[in-house]
Write a structure and sequence with these properties.
By secondary structure, this protein is of the alpha/beta class. The protein folds into two domains: 108 residues, Nucleotidyltransferase, domain 5, CATH 3.30.420.40; 77 residues, Nucleotidyltransferase, domain 5. Helix content is 29%, strand content 28%. β2 and β3 form a beta hairpin.
Length: 230
């Protein structure tokens, strides 16, 4: 029984999976209330699956890239739950979850781009190729202005909120996913675990440490020393 959490995009969500079956999934759309909405989403997902916290055997949490505050909410929640219950916590690149959804929903079938809102007029991005019915990350993750991405990347069909915000990107289609679904993030984690992948054993692996993937420095900074006035 796997609990999947993600707070890396504007969607705050939780899902419960039994193997590769998504038993329940709850998402709330609000980019400013991650701390208020995640716990209720978890409770609703567990209730929808008909299980309790004690039935969980692992947690998968989206590690971004994403906004600083929202990202920390999901990761800290997953880490605390894992420590209290004594179960493993696995990090998953949130862009991989969006890529999984794009393939599952047959929005893409070849090379494509995932681009999410990084604010500051930038996008978090990664390139993927569809192989054997699943996405494989071939470039990124990174952060950049959409117009600064290589021309070849900008020409790829893109999913995520990025192509809705910036004309420099080519949207994959009207039904292209925009924000992360936790159930699909859980499927990415399940497939890696079923394949025997060990967390952090491969540099470009799927199972990551449950630590924020920020990619850039925060806006807030520690104030420097006061200047002396002669």
């Amino acid at each position: 029984m796997l609990l999947a959490l993600d707070t890396a995009t504007g969607a705050i969500g939780a899902a419960v999976l039994d193997g590769d079956r998504v038993l329940s999934e709850v998402t709330h759309q609000d980019s400013r209330r991650h701390g208020e909405l995640l716990a209720p989403a978890m409770e609703q997902a567990l209730a929808g699956a008909g299980i309790g916290v004690g039935d969980l055997t692992a947690v998968a949490v989206g590690v971004g890239p994403g906004p600083f505050t929202g990202l920390r909410v999901g990761i800290v929640t997953g880490l605390v739950l894992g420590q209290v219950r004594g179960i493993p916590v696995h990090g998953i690149c949130s862009l991989d979850a969006l890529a999984e959804q794009a393939v599952v929903e047959q929005v893409v079938d070849d090379r494509f781009l995932v681009a999410t809102d990084a604010r500051r007029k930038e996008v978090y991005w990664a390139e993927y190729a569809v192989e054997h019915g699943h996405p494989r990350r071939t470039g990124g993750p990174g952060v950049a202005h959409a117009a600064d991405l290589p021309e070849a990347a900008r020409a790829l069909p893109a999913v995520g909120r990025g192509p809705l915000l910036y004309d420099a990107l080519t949207r994959a289609g009207g039904d292209a996913p925009v924000d992360v679904r936790p159930g699909l993030l859980g499927l990415v984690a399940h497939r890696a675990l079923a394949a025997g992948e060990v967390q952090g054993a491969v540099a470009d692996g799927i199972l990551l440490a449950p630590e924020p993937l920020y990619l850039r420095r925060p806006d807030a900074a520690v104030p420097g020393p006061l200047k002396t006035v002669p």
